[in-house]
Amino acid sequence: MEQSLPVIPRHAETAETYSRLLVDGVPLIDVRAPVEFAAGAVPGAVNLPLLTDDERHRVGLCYRQQGSDAAHALGRRLLRGQRREEALVAWLDHLEKFPEARLYCARGGSRSAIAAQWIGAATGRLPPRLVGGYKAFRAFLLGQLVPAAIDAVPIVLGGRTGSGKTLLLRRLANTIDLEALANHRGSSFGQFLTVQPSQADFENRLAAALAIHRFHRYATLVVEDEGRHIGKRFLPKELADIFAGGVLIVLEAPLAERINTISAEYVDEAQAVYRSSFGDEAGPVRWLADMEASADRLAKRLGAARLVRVKQLLNRAWQRQRTEGDHHGHRDWIKILLQEYYDPMYDYQIDKKKERVVFRGGVEEVLSYLREREETGETTGRAAPAGLS
């Protein structure tokens, strides 16, 4: 008979514990069913389930129809033999790579306890569990999305499409990249091959980023000028209002530079991703079809005549690329979209926010300004942290 192992003391996790887990990137094993994990999980966790979706459904149905004892009995029957071995091997393999990993389930109850017991019986060491499971961690994360949790001065980075805002954000430490968290570039052409996270996961990622930012006690919080919606995901209203009230920095770049930036990201880099996903022949063809579909989604705003021009230039550039291996033709349709669609739309929006604009400049000028704002953070009552890169 399997030896009984001591149970981990169940003291409530603290906000500091959750913050430290996020800051240190402690590996987490989510033993919930895949369908639960897909709906929302702790950022960075890996899903190594105790029960499959079907098994979870059967146990839940049994619980509703016959009660707790019958449901537990069914669970024990399902988790015998090969099923147990498969789950255990997956956990042990992951723990071999990440011995500091912690387990969690929905509420820190039976599923993570069973997993810990099995691992302990196999290794002689009980892995740590997150008390309260995902539900408790989710509550902590939601607490990071309220105005009271934002104690840094919000600074919003704006600029015309292709000015390089995302590239600039990557050169700073005190920023949060909303587009990366939402897995979307924020424009009609901004979808990635990989799907966007669920709304709960987007909120969890954003909350984790805010918690890490707050842990480092930055004086300022720099975000890109976004609407409340990023693709199909959206910012909580109160948080969006905070960002919307921040001072606005406008990054400026010449048209030619912006065309090059867009071409590099949406043509060269995007086609490389398509090739790796669909193959050298099928990938670029799939890319072209998706770009045409993106243009079609702008039909009402572009107008019929302009849409035809854009698609004609896109296909002409595509043929030149196929026959000559030259991508430069793509700059023609990109130029039209920037000058005749994105720029007028952005200029209209920025004019409505002009009273919030406190600085304009090129990349290095904006970087210097943002770093200076952070370095003089003692005016907010906190010492400015070192290490901005």
TrEMBL record:
InterPro entries xrefs: AAA_SelU, P-loop_NTPase, Rhodanese-like_dom, Rhodanese-like_dom_sf, SelU
Keywords in alphabetical order: Selenium
UniProt key word Nucleotide-binding: no
GO MF term set: tRNA 2-selenouridine synthase activity
Gene3D superfamilies xrefs: Rhodanese-like domain
Pfam assignment, any one: Rhodanese
Rhodanese domain residues: 22-146
Gene Ontology annotations of biological process type: tRNA wobble uridine modification
Listed name of the protein: tRNA 2-selenouridine synthase
Species of origin: Desulfofustis glycolicus DSM 9705
